[in-house]
Each structure stands twice: as C-alpha cells, then as structure tokens.
Amino acid sequence: MPITRRRVFAVLAGLGLAAGAPSVWMSRMKTYDGPVSDHFDGLTFFDPDGSPPKSLAEVLRWQFGGGRQRASWPDWVPSPHADTPPPRVDGNKVRLSFVGHASWLIQTGGLNILVDPVWSMRASPFSWAGPKRHNDPGIAFDALPKIDVVLVSHGHYDHLDLATLSRLAKVFSPRVITPLGNDVTMRDADEAIKVEAFDWKDRVELGNGIAVTLVPTRHWSARGLFDRNKALWASFVLETPAGKLYIVCDSGYGDGKHFRRVAEAHGPLRLAILPIGAYEPRWFMRDQHMNPSDAVKALADCGAQTALAHHHGTFQLTDEAIDAPVTALGEALDEAKIPRERFAALKPGQVFEV
Fold first, then answer.
1. pLDDT value at 259 more than 80
2. Whole-angstrom distance, CA of residue 237 vs CA of residue 212
3. Sequence-ordered strand ranges (E) for 222-332
4. SS3 for 156-204, per residue?
C-alpha cells in the first residue's frame, strides 16, 4: 500500500489511541499541575510497575515497516441487538448494557452510570481520518435514560470522546469522574462538562450507597505527541448493591500484579470487565493492551466471579481480524479449563444482569 499523505494523517490520528497522534495544537494545551507523588514527577505521570509508551520510530516501524500483516475488516458489521434501557434499576440488581468498544451503561441502586462513552463515528481528533465505527452504538443516544454519572478512564480518543461528553452535558448534566489531568482537557473543550478529577486510590461517593475507587492500571495516556502522560489513567472498582465491579477499560498484563493488588485491596469482586482486543502485533502492543490469553490470566488474578469482555469489534485500532479476539478468548478459556460462560463476550446492545 503506498504511503500517501492522507494515510499518514489517518494513521497518526488513530494512534492517539495506541501511540500518540501528532496534533500540533496539543503543545499549546493546558496540562495538569500538581504535587509530586510516587507516580507523578511534576511534569508527567508514570506507572512504577509499567512501561513507557512506544516511540514515534516504533510507531512508524509498525505502520510502514516490511512484513506487516493487517487483517481487513468488513466496512459494516451491524449487531443484531439494540437495547432500550429502563429509566432506573432499583434494589440489589445491576444491569449492564454493552454500548460497544469500551462503552457501557451500568444501572444499579437507582443510578445510571456510563463508562467511557463514545457515540461519535470516529475515535479521532479529525472527522475525516482515524478509526471509524464498524457498527452502531448498542443504545441509540436518544434512547438513553437520564445519566447521573460518567466514568472516563483516560484521554485516548476511543475512551475520552469530547463530542459525546458535550452532548451528555447538554442533555443530562451528569457528574464526570476521571483521573487527574483529563479534567483539563474536558474543561478546555467545554466548560459545561461537570468534571471532577481524582488520583489513584481515591474513593468517590456517587450516591445511594454507590461509590467508585480509581485504581492503577498498566497503560498510559496522550491526545497528541506533546502531551504524553500529562494526564493520568486508571481502572475503576465500582461498589454496588450486588457487589463490586472491576472495570478495566485499557491495560497491558505485565506480570499480573495490578490485578492481584486489586484482589487484595478490594476483593471479593462480583464481576470484572476486561479488554480483549487491539493486541496485534504483540511486540508493539504487549505493554499496553492485553490479548485474550492475558485477559483470562487477569480474571484468575483478580478473582472475580464472572467477567465480561470489551474493547473489540467496533474500531479497528490494530492488526487482528474483527472476530479474532472472541475466537481466541474461547480457546484461552478452554486451555485454562475455565467454563466459557464465566467470561462472556457480548455484542453491542446485549444486556447482562447480576
């Protein structure tokens, strides 16, 4: 495939999700300014147990080097499901509706909570380049119930979608809970977004006896070449009437210590939501994205009773085929002698209840 200017822009736009898109204006954006900690050196955040993001040279090697094997996805793969959620879910139940990629609607204890909501057609700073949806959101935006809280895990474009957050702010005005520094990005774009930023291990009361704790995860953050790790990233432990939910929106596996630490600090866990996609080639993606085999190990490490898979099948961020993560998940579960029903992969619009 020829290296055209449009292809370079498309690749680099999408790599805001995987390796940092070179948006010149990002160098002029405001960034987090706070006290030094064991994971913030005064300028950038870091994971003491993680790995730094790949260099631009490695990005270009992956994208334009010889021998690349990138699967071709169908242009459009509609889900056979579409959800119309109830206004509220009360009592001790939790209703989880899969919107697609890493977006979920979680209804419990009378609260409606969105996770990493992306209703945009592209996960990109551009409307004309970058990863494009291959299916509709599993819930039409106009079918959403009143949203009370939004959890945003980090700043990559497939997780922090400013257009969707602005739309939610206009219609519902929810609280937005996010790691440190992502609030700067949101407020700079739209002052109407009611964002609150927190550090790792902070616990936030959401109301009705529901709370969320931000926990370390093996990842990183950027929206351009000049803001790498200027904002923090996190996973979430959500306390609900049905037990604790561990929501991992993006993570590498490493040696598994992040997952074991969550089990030690927050167990027992009723449910884990774990990413299984965007993992090829492994030499590039291993430190930042789990593959299905890693996700099965993460389930064992965190000790959750049940798991749901996400981060696959909507945006083509990496080289594997659209159906490869779900197929490989089944194989990894069989190899680990874990019943397949313990770790389910939903399609957008499907619902799971605990």
1. yes
2. 6
3. 235-240, 243-247, 269-275, 306-310
4. CCCCCCHHHHHHHHHHCCCEEEEECCHHHHHHHHCCCCEEEEECCCCEE
Tell me how many degrees the CA angle 77-283-289 measures, rounded to the nearest 5: 50
Q: Give 104-162 as a DSSP string.
A: EEEEETTEEEEES---SSBSSS-SSSS-BBSS--SS-GGG-----EEE---SSTTT--H
With a threshold of 0.90, does the pTM exceed it? yes
Residue 128 makes CB contacts below 8 A (sequence gap 6+) with: none
Question: What is the token pair recorded at 273?
Answer: 């939501």
Question: Which tokens hold the place of 134?
Answer: 């291959």
Helical axes 257-266 vs 292-302, angle rounded to 10°? 30
Is 123 within 8 Å of 158 (Cβ atoms)? Answer: yes
Q: Report the C-alpha gap between 153 and 273 in whole angstroms.
A: 13
Token pair 């594997």: residue: 320
| pLDDT top residue among 21 and 161 | 161
